[in-house]
């Protein structure tokens, strides 16, 4: 039997070559065992693999029998997704974001559906969509915007109210049914949408929305919002109008004066008059470079979307922006059954920064002339500049972490100790600070004012030193001297199998930014492989703990969330630490002993 992943790869190629193709008979791929081994391979390494839903079902205990039970339930139509367990996480603005945590069996089925949907829809998604897609990220969205928003006059910042919570189920199913003509497959997606959620041991039905936290939610949201991408593309075609390159009257006048002066210079002999004309010619050249050359009477529209946030760049008048905003509001209300937030959907002149994905975006108005190739040009004029919002993002980040306080006398930031970290070891404290520094610096590596993070790096370093000094009840200088490793560096030494190492705090200028290189987003093709590791290990019918080999026993996967949390006191812990794996294929008897004691 041909592996399902190879078949999905072929489906993806068909969808890529023919965007209008309609797909049928997809449900049969969910009745193949190998797709669930691939799904387990995708899920077991995540931290959420050990998180319980409404029952005790987790990645622990995965087996061939479990796969067969799922397939049998799907085949005879008795499969019913369990309600998700609702929990809440805090948003940056202080509000709470609801998350839905499915049972692990439902996660496996959802991931199998996701693989099929991704193979079909990924090639037809817009190039301007970057959220929740393989090979794309915030940085690819920002990079594309940096290249394409050049010369924009206005920004339209878009925000859809409660996008995930307000997706209309009937509309979503209708959109999917246009491309997928398989009733059983579409009905299974409908079952997941209508599964409901449990909160405080009470059941609540779901009549709209995709619960955030589910495996299917991101791709279903992208399928839904792809309709918005197509609408903006249609809007762009009707809006764009290219006019011939026409010089402004002011530029033509200065250009003509300069040409006449050059002719006079050529007719004059060396002397005071010729030198005066040359000086005048130079002054006209400076004036020419300050004068707008092109008559900007064409209209252009550019667009980038990440999840439910989008930014539209308009080269035209503000009146056109008002028309675009009105059309977007009408389309989102009538076609997507959602609402565009009027207070958050702002029209901003491109000279002022617009906030998008944590960056401030603006178009430069820089008249500085610099040498370029064999001439002089205003190399920075009309280019897109990405800036770090230092006050709103970096300073707020420092206050939220408790790393700084504001001095009462002059309002400056002062690093302070984070007392909540003092129960950890010195190595854990420095590792925590280092991860926070690298995370923020890596995210903002595309910014033109990236060097301003030097102050952030300094505040974090001295906050770390003060935390260590608080822990050891000593002066900061003693900590510095104790862990000094050079003229201006310090770090915590620790032992590894390969020898002694030192954990240092990363400086902002040591971030290489390789993840932030200008990369053109491309379609990621599914890599076809015959078997997954879990599949091979289960099919081997060998217990990796007791060594028993034979098909007369049942074999299951024992799963732990983190190998580093194992103490090595039990035999199975010793084996998992030695293998450095979060999974261990064991026979049923050994699995019972692991959970209930030897």
UniProtKB/TrEMBL annotation:
Reverse transcriptase domain ranges (all copies): 70-361
One Pfam family per UniProt: AI2M-like_HNH
GO biological process: mRNA processing
Taxonomic superkingdom: Bacteria
InterPro entries: AI2M-like_HNH, DNA/RNA_pol_sf, Domain_X, GrpII_Intron_Splice-Mob/Def, HNH_nuc, RT_dom
Protein name: Group II intron-encoded protein LtrA
Organism: Roseburia intestinalis
Lineage: Bacteria, Bacillati, Bacillota, Clostridia, Lachnospirales
Gene giving rise to this polypeptide: ltrA_3
């Amino acid at each position: 039997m041909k592996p399902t992943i190879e078949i999905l790869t072929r489906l993806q190629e068909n969808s890529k070559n023919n965007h209008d193709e309609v797909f049928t008979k997809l449900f049969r791929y969910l009745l193949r065992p190998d797709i669930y081994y691939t799904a387990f391979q995708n899920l077991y390494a995540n931290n959420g693999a050990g998180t319980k839903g409404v029952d005790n079902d987790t990645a622990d205990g995965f087996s061939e029998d479990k796969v067969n039970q799922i397939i049998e339930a799907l085949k005879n139509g008795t499969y019913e997704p369990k309600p998700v367990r609702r929990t809440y996480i805090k948003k940056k603005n202080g509000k709470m974001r609801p998350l839905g945590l499915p049972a692990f069996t439902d996660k496996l089925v959802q991931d199998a559906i996701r693989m099929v949907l991704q193979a079909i829809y990924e090639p037809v998604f817009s190039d301007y969509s970057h959220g929740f897609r393989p090979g794309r990220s915030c940085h690819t969205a920002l990079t594309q915007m940096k290249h394409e928003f050049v010369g924009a006059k206005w920004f339209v910042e878009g925000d859809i109210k409660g996008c995930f919570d307000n997706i209309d189920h009937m509309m979503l199913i209708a959109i999917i049914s246009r491309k997928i003509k398989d009733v059983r497959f579409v009905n299974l997606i409908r079952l997941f949408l209508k599964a409901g959620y449990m909160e405080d041991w009470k059941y609540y039905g779901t009549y709209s929305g995709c619960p955030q936290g589910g495996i299917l939610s991101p791709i279903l949201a992208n399928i839904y919002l792809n309709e918005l991408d197509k609408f903006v593309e249609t809007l762009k075609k009707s809006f764009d109008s290219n006019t011939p390159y026409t010089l402004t009257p002011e530029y033509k006048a200065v250009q003509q004066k300069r040409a006449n002066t050059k002719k006079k210079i050529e007719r004059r002999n060396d002397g005071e008059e010729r030198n005066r004309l040359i000086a005048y010619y130079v002054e006209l050249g400076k004036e020419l470079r300050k004068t707008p050359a092109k008559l900007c009477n064409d209209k252009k529209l550019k667009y980038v979307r990440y999840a439910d946030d989008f930014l539209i760049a308009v080269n035209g008048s503000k009146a056109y922006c008002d028309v675009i905003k009105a059309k977007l509001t009408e389309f989102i209300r009538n076609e997507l059954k959602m609402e565009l937030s009027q207070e958050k959907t702002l029209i901003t002149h491109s000279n002022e920064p617009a906030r998008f994905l944590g960056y401030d975006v603006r178009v430069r108005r820089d008249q500085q002339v610099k040498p370029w190739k064999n001439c002089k040009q205003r190399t920075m004029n009309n280019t897109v500049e990405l800036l770090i919002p230092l006050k709103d993002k970096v300073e707020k980040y420092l206050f939220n972490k408790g790393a700084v306080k504001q001095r009462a006398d002059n309002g400056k930031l002062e690093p302070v100790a984070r007392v909540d970290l003092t129960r950890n070891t010195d190595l854990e404290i420095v590792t925590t600070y280092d991860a926070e520094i690298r995370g923020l610096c890596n995210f903002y590596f595309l910014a033109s004012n990236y060097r301003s993070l030097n102050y952030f790096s300094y505040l974090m370093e001295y906050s770390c030193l003060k935390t260590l000094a608080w822990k050891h009840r000593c002066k900061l200088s003693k900590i510095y001297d104790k862990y000094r490793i050079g003229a201006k560096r310090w770090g915590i030494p620790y032992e590894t199998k390969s020898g002694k190492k030192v954990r240092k705090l990363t400086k902002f200028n040591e971030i290489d930014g390789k993840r932030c290189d200008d990369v053109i987003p491309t379609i990621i093709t599914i890599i076809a492989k015959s078997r997954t590791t879990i599949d091979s290990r289960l099919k081997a019918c060998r217990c990796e703990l007791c060594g028993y080999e034979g098909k007369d026993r049942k074999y299951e996967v024992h799963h732990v969330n983190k190998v580093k949390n194992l103490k090595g006191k039990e035999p199975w812990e010793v084996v998992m630490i030695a293998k450095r794996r979060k999974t261990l294929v064991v026979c049923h008897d050994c699995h019972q002993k692991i959970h209930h004691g030897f």
